[in-house]
Design brief:
The chain is α/β, with parallel strands linked by helices. It has 7 helices and 7 strands, in the order βαβαβαβαβαβααβ.
């Protein structure tokens, strides 16, 4: 451990993986713990969070599992209260929950639009709102919201791209509002990383995604997690309102 997050308390939402392998949230929670943070691993399905906790505690880290639907304000409040009760405060919130929609404008139903907006954007609003008083009591903190490069380019996935663009706008306005409290708010925009969420696309799609970037290499949840470690740590003390693009160069091609 390099102890970059020693003494800090973190919440990671979407800390479980929906299948074999490591999603962005699971990898981030593990890296936070390896860097010395105590981590509340939150997932809608507690058994997924418990898998992440088992990895962390098996390595000698400190973590607890918590079940919450972060599209509901009372459950976000309970999530923050659990971290504060367990470890005395909150320093880091990593908003990672997200679902995909691969439909175009004319294919997207109203119900699908509402569901994607609730999970991918509203959850970050509610979780951040719940976390601010606890961070303020500590004299500051770091909020990280996972967006996507889909927010930065023309894209066929209408609801998903719109929700992820909303995350970036949310991050910027929160950075301005919360800066005086010492709370930094940043986004990460991952590119086409290979995670359990997209594993159903198959091997051909996996190869196309790998070749799409200038680097021509495959990204994983670890790549996103290391970006989150930087934004959570004091190394980024002068960084707020920023979107950290982790995409092997896809957005500059």
């Amino acid at each position: 451990m390099a102890d970059r997050l020693r003494g800090k308390v973190a919440i990671v939402t979407g800390a479980g993986s929906r299948g074999p392998g490591l999603g962005n949230g699971k990898a981030t929670a593990i890296l936070f713990a390896r860097e010395g943070a105590r981590v509340l691993c939150v997932d809608h399905m507690k058994e997924r969070a418990e898998e992440t906790v088992a990895i962390i505690t098996g390595e000698g880290g400190a973590a607890e599992a918590f079940a919450a639907d972060v599209t509901r304000a009372p459950e976000c409040d309970a999530m923050v209260a659990a971290a504060v009760t367990q470890w005395g405060g909150l320093d880091i919130l990593h908003n990672n929950v997200g679902i995909e929609s691969r439909h175009t404008l004319l294919e997207t139903t109203e119900d699908e639009w509402d569901r994607v907006m609730a999970v991918d954007a509203k959850s970050m609003f509610l979780s951040t709102k719940a976390a601010v008083p606890a961070m303020d009591a500590r004299g500051g903190g770091s909020v990280i919201c996972v967006s996507s490069v889909a927010a930065l380019r023309g894209h066929g996935r209408t609801a998903y791209a719109a929700a992820k663009a909303a995350v970036i706008g949310f991050v910027k306005t929160c950075a301005v509002q919360l800066g005086p409290k010492g709370i930094r708010v940043n986004a990460i925009a991952p590119g086409m990383v290979w995670t359990p969420m997209v594993s159903g696309l198959g091997d051909d799609a996996r190869e196309r995604r790998r070749k799409a970037s200038p680097l021509g290499t495959e990204g994983s949840g670890w790549d996103v997690g290391w970006g989150a470690v930087y934004l959570a740590s004091d190394e980024s003390r002068w960084v707020t309102g920023h979107t950290l693009i982790i995409d092997a160069g896809v957005t500059v091609r």
